[in-house]
Amino acid sequence: MGNVSGWQGWGRRERERRAAKKLGDDVMTDMDTPLATPRNIQICEVTCDSFRIMWDMTPEDTARATHFFIDLSRKESRDPNRFKHRDVPTKLVAKAVPLPMAVRGHWFLSPRTEYCVAVQTAVRQPDGDYLVSEWSQVVDFCTGDYAMEHLQQLLDKAKVSAGRLLKFSVFYRNQHPDYFHHVRNECGGVMRPALKDSSGSHGSPINGKLHGVFLSCNTEFDTGLPPKDSPYGPLRFQIPAGHLLNPNISLYFADFYCMYTAYHYVVLVLAPVGSEGDGFCRPRLPMLDLASNPFLTYTAPERPGEEPLFSHASDVILEVLYTEPLHLDQGTVEQISGHHQLMSLTTANAKKDPSCKVCNISVGR
């Protein structure tokens, strides 16, 4: 009887051992089963500093994946060997979440910049190592411009630097003789709007998209007149301020930046109400009150026969983009009165200082 009981006990223990071994084999097999390569990578809801990403996964991988590996880099610095270490997490390890997954804050993404991204799925094993899939195909995408909320942050910073308002009477544009010769002989005397370059904040919505004629209005403290010297050329086109700044004009804030210097630039847009330029700016840029803003103001006359008053900020350099053509006959072209001109200087495509705490905001540069 005791022998039978012992034999039955051994049989039960053997069955339990085999069952446990089979369960372990099943678990090990499941853990060692390769993960499928992520496919059909999709990027959506792209902003200047964030995006959402999703891809196709098998139901089995969806159930067991514990982490996602994401490799992101600027497209221009793309390295074909970047993914050679298949089983090593690269730039971001994120816990697996339902897709699409929001990606922001992990990198300092720059606005309007081309990136390439690839992903792996992974299962964290008991020993801490990862079972990983092959890298997906590399997908390219481009981040967006500053949204209105970002421009408002930039505007708030610019207001702090604007300084007191000074009176002025003319807008002006300095250029070399060849420029005005071309305008007279090739353009019928019309300064035509040109496409805004990429200088300043990379995320400004007007860069490379809005056409205009750049003008200045800053004056000297002691005379109240435009500076006698100019870095842009010895000839100056001047036009009365009221021709461009009046109740029929919309005024927009477009940018605030510096170029590794102590002084800062504010870019403003003047667009006739209802014009194509006005239509472009209205949903993209903060509109300023003509009579009450810290940069450029128009004050209507109080009595018949009086002239309106025009004022500009004193502690920043204003760059005013007028979105319509300007005929030279609307103003005058004269030699500037300074005895010398400054060396040629241009802000074309100049890069904003990304380290400046005065003019940068908390999103991509």
From TrEMBL:
<dbReference type="InterPro" id="IPR036116">
    <property type="entry name" value="FN3_sf"/>
</dbReference>
<comment type="function">
    <text>Its interaction with PHYH suggests a role in the development of the central system.</text>
</comment>
<comment type="subunit">
    <text>Interacts with PHYH and ADGRB1.</text>
</comment>
<feature type="domain" description="Phytanoyl-CoA hydroxylase-interacting protein-like C-terminal">
    <location>
        <begin position="142"/>
        <end position="365"/>
    </location>
</feature>
<dbReference type="InterPro" id="IPR045545">
    <property type="entry name" value="PHYIP/PHIPL_C"/>
</dbReference>
<dbReference type="GO" id="GO:0005737">
    <property type="term" value="C:cytoplasm"/>
</dbReference>
<dbReference type="InterPro" id="IPR013783">
    <property type="entry name" value="Ig-like_fold"/>
</dbReference>
<dbReference type="InterPro" id="IPR003961">
    <property type="entry name" value="FN3_dom"/>
</dbReference>
<comment type="similarity">
    <text>Belongs to the PHYHIP family.</text>
</comment>
<dbReference type="InterPro" id="IPR042868">
    <property type="entry name" value="PHYHIP/PHYHIPL"/>
</dbReference>
<keyword id="KW-0325">Glycoprotein</keyword>
<dbReference type="Pfam" id="PF19281">
    <property type="entry name" value="PHYHIP_C"/>
</dbReference>
<protein>
    <recommendedName>
        <fullName>Phytanoyl-CoA hydroxylase-interacting protein</fullName>
    </recommendedName>
</protein>
